[in-house]
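Risk register update: the risk of archive-format incompatibility is retired. Evidence:
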Amino acid sequence: MQVSVETTSGLERLMTISVPAERIDQDVTKRIQQTARTVKIDGFRPGKVPVKVVKQRYGKGIREEVLGQVVQESFYQALQQEEINPAGTPSIDFKKDVEGENLEYTAKFEVYPSIELADFSSVEIEKKSAEVTDADLDQMIETLRKQQADWVEVEREAKLEDRVRIDFEGFVDGEAFDGGKGEGMDLVLGSNTMIPGFEAGLVGAKAGDEVEVKVTFPESYQAENLQGKDAVFKVKVASVSEQVLAELNEEFFSKFGLEDKTEEAFRVEVGKNMARELKQALKMKLKDQVFSKLLELNAIDVPSALVDGEIDNLRRQAVMQFAGPDSDMDPSALPKEMFTDQADRRVKIGLLMQEVIKVNELEADEARVRETLEEMAETYQDPQQVIDWYMGNEEMLGQIKGLVLEEQVVDQLLAAAKVADVTVSYEDAIKPEQPAAPEAE
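Archived output:
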């Protein structure tokens, strides 16, 4: 077998493979003989069909099967011979396929990039820490009470955080416009649901009032024909309601599945949940910061096959999240461009992580795996049952080990970096990071 490899561009390789005719002819002959012993053809007794007849009738199909197997085996042998690690499935193109002559085909594929990790000692990392204070706990409990709140109609002027029920119609230059009309709409003032100025214009209105609200559509408004336009909304207020927070009583506590239906037990449980959320948020922000620095230091090309595979994963996740597991929506219907940047980042981080793992000979720490399992399980009614289920499921346990190994990579990189400890508030700690503003040209 003869093999030659050409670098066509970047990570793409073109491998040309020539397989001796004897190897193919021998396999085809052997397969035809086997078929002759088992095939049933009218006019011949079982096992007595002449090889010539079998070849005439089935030879083409048998040769195609043999070629498929030969290509698979020879490609694998060629990769080993040339010490090449392909990324993704090759594209096969037959250059010469004539019975009795050597088979020649090309395989086009991508390879994994060669990575030499940059020194991480110059990197500066902010390691944030925070605590759940009594004020944070009080704020969270109030938020939970608001989620279970009732709305009660009042006979007074509307103020911020009240809910108004309205009928409205919008006009630009005295003409009504499409999409500018609504009836029986409930609107919480201050929720910023409507365009700027609309909700503020209803503060002070009472049930039965008819109000004209003047606004200006934002320049970035989705309807191009309304961008930057002045408009007048004629609004009729049907009712004004104020929010009455849920009382901290047994009925309220029961909604959160507490056995001990007391305010003290409720505060303890909410505090535990907040602490878990805080720990996870701080861990994720630190990890994202470390991986961003890792990407900045190590510019690498990535195989498009891996990026395409990750895009498919993200598409499926999006369908699961927004359409549900039982949806018949085709994930491929989602535009590829929606996920390209995220997929490219994930693949790059994955390849760089693998290099860190290889260079430092890291393995998932069993004690940390167990600790991670216990932390996950403590939110369930029977934690030990959850732990046992994971321990008995190799695939799911592998996912936990992957998470732990990822944390060990972060630790490895932090050990080499310049780390500054920074204390922040609980609110700042759990708040999503804002994307960096683009630099001015």
